[in-house]
Every structure is written in C-alpha cells, then in structure tokens.
Design brief:
Blueprint: H1 2-24, E1 25-30, E2 44-49, E3 59-63, E4 86-94, E5 113-117, H2 126-129, E6 132-133, E7 137-145, E8 152-155
Length: about 160
C-alpha cells in the first residue's frame, strides 16, 4: 500500500513539474531568415515566458504585428502559443533608451515599449512596424535546441 501511495505521489509531482515547465517555457521553431546568421529556419529555441528583465541585446519572441497598424493595433497576448504568428527579434532599445540609427526613428523608445531589429537587414521589425509594446512579448530566448518541428513558429 505504501508503494502505491508513493507511486501516486511521484506521478502527481511529475505532472505538476511538467505543468510548471509548460507555463514557464515554450519551444519555438524559427521560420524565415530575419535572425540569420544567429538563428536559421528550422532552428528551435527554448523561450522563457514573460517580459520581466528584458534588456537591449536580448532575443525575444513577440506577437506578429498587424499588417496595417503594426504593433499599435495588436491586443495584449493571452498566453496561447498555437494558432498565432510570431516574430523573433533582438531588442535594441527599451523604454527611455535612444533609438539606434539603424531603427530609423528619432528620440527615445516610449514607456512600455521596446525597439526590435532582426539580425538580417531584410527583417521586418521596428523599422517597419514601430516600437513594440511590451505586452506583445511572449518571452526571452534562453537557448538554442536541437532542430526539428515544434509547437510554435517565429518568422519574419
């Protein structure tokens, strides 16, 4: 009886750990060449969910902007990964930082926003869509993983 109770307890603990990991991390497959040569199509990255501690130089996964209004017209993320479009970009300025010349905007990044650039000059990013509201950040790339298909995809 004690062995059965221990097995149930172990299974419950493992299930709780998996649930915690799924809420904290997500695997995203890179699509497109906007982050080449750093990340190439088919690369998989482990993303730590959340936007706390985001700083210039971090690579983030953000919600795909609206084609007409950019990120301005995008509602806050709801936590779901499947069925959405994602971008993977490098943060080049956070609130209060002056925009780098490459962004093509003047002044400082507004409060609650970040400026994003792809490592590839042909990237669609803040040069096209303006600053990205922090509520569009799914999370920060923690590490590259082995290539293969995954539940999410990040592109342009």
């Amino acid at each position: 009886m004690i062995a059965v109770a221990g097995a149930v307890l172990l299974a419950s603990g493992a299930a709780a750990a998996v649930l915690w990991l799924r809420r904290r991390y997500v695997v995203v497959t890179v699509q497109g060449r906007s982050m080449a040569p750093t990340y190439r199509p088919g690369d998989r990255v482990l993303v730590r969910r959340g936007r706390s501690g985001v700083s210039a130089g971090d690579v983030v996964v953000v919600g795909e902007p609206d084609r007409e209004t950019g990120w301005r017209g995008s509602p806050p993320l709801d936590g779901r990964v499947a069925g959405r479009g994602w971008y993977i970009k490098r943060v080049v300025a956070t609130a209060g930082d002056r925009y780098p010349v490459e962004v093509g905007l003047r002044g400082a990044c507004p409060a609650g926003h970040v400026a994003l650039l792809g490592d590839n000059v042909l990237s669609l990013d803040s040069r096209e869509h303006g600053p990205c509201p922090e509520h569009q950040i799914l999370g920060v790339v923690a590490r590259r993983m082995a290539a293969a298909g995954g539940p999410g995809a990040a592109g342009p």
